[in-house]
Amino acid sequence: MRFLSARRRHPAAKVLMLLFALVVVGGIYSVVSPADQVAADTGKSQQIAEGKALFAVGCASCHGLQGEGQVSGTIQGPPLIGVGAAAVDFQVGTGRMPMAQPGQQAPRKKNLYTDEEIAALAAYVASLGPGPDIPAEEDYNPEGLSDEDLARGGELFRTNCSACHNFAGSGGALPNGKYAPTLEGVSNRHLYEAMQTGPQQMPVFPDRALTPEEKRQIIGYLNHLNSQPNAGGFTLGGLGPVSEGFWAWVVGLGVLIAFTVWITAKGARAK
Ligand code: HEC
Ligand code: HEC
C-alpha cells in the first residue's frame, strides 16, 4: 500500500486549493465589477453629452445653453432646471417641443426626434437639477385593474380633469383662446407624464395629490372610455344623454311620421 500513501496529498493542499480559488474569484470580481461600474458611468455621461449637443442645436435658442431659460427678448422659453426627464419625454415625445414659433399654446405635432435622442435630451435636462423621472412601464400600464379600480378612476377623472378636458375626455375651450386637448389616442406614458408635469395651463398632480396608483386608475378609465364602441351609432362628441335622447326622439318620430304617411297613402289607394 506504499503506492496509495505516496499519492496522498499534503494536509495543507486542501487549504491551499481553497485559498487559490478564493483569490481567483476575488480577482475576477475586482476586475469585472468596477469595470462594469465605469462602463455604466461612461454610458450615462456619454448620453448626457449627446443630449447636451442636441439641446444646443434644437432647444438652446429659447431655453439657454444650460437650460437657464430666456425670459426677455423676442424668443423666450422658461428655465428647465428641475423640470425633470419626464417633462422632456412628454414635451418632445408629443412633438410640442421644439416649439415651432412662440404662440398662445404649444400644440401636439409630429415628433422630430428618435427615442434615443429624446432619452439623451431627457438625461441632459435631468442632469441640470432633480425633477420627476420618466415613469416605468408598471407605473402607467393599467393591465390588471379591477372594475372597481376603473370606477374609481372615472370618479377621479370627473373630479380632477373633466372641468378642462370634458366628461368624455374630448377636450374643451379655456379662457384667452387656449384649450385643453382631447385625450383620445394619447399614449399611457404621456398621460402619466402630463399629470406629473402639468404642461402649460394644466395643474401639476404630484404624488401627494394623486398617488401613482390613482394616476394608473385614471389611465385605466381613459383606456376603457376610448375602447367603448359608440352605443347609439351617432357621434355627437359625447355631448351626453340629453342630446342623444333628443336625436332618438327626432329620428324615432321621423320614422313614425313616415310610416303613418305610408299607411295613409296605402289606405287611400285601397279605397
Ligand atoms: C421657439 C422656442 C422654443 C424652442 C426651440 C424649444 N422650446 Fe421648450 N418651451 C418653449 C416655451 C415658450 C415653453 C413654455 C410653454 C408654455 O408653457 O406655454 C417651453 C416649455 C418646455 C418644457 C416644459 C417645461 C415645464 O415647466 O414643464 C420643456 C421640458 C421644454 N420646453 C423642452 C424643450 C426641449 C427639450 C427643446 C428642444 C428639443 C425645446 N424645449 C425647444 C419654447 C421653446
Ligand atoms: C385647468 C385645466 C386642466 C385640468 C384640470 C387638467 N388639464 Fe390636462 N391639459 C390642459 C391643457 C391646457 C393642456 C394642453 C397643454 C399643452 O398643449 O401644452 C393639457 C394637456 C393634457 C394632456 C396632453 C394631451 C396631448 O395631446 O398630448 C394630457 C394627457 C392631459 N392633459 C391629461 C389630464 C388629466 C389626466 C387630468 C386630470 C388628472 C388633467 N389633464 C387635468 C388643461 C387641464
Automatic annotation (TrEMBL):
Coiled coil: none annotated. GO terms for cellular component: plasma membrane. Heme c 2 binds at residues 161, 164-165. Heme c 1 binds at residues 59, 62-63. It is a multi-pass membrane protein. Its EC number is 7.1.1.8. This is Cytochrome bc1 complex cytochrome c subunit. It comes from Microlunatus parietis.
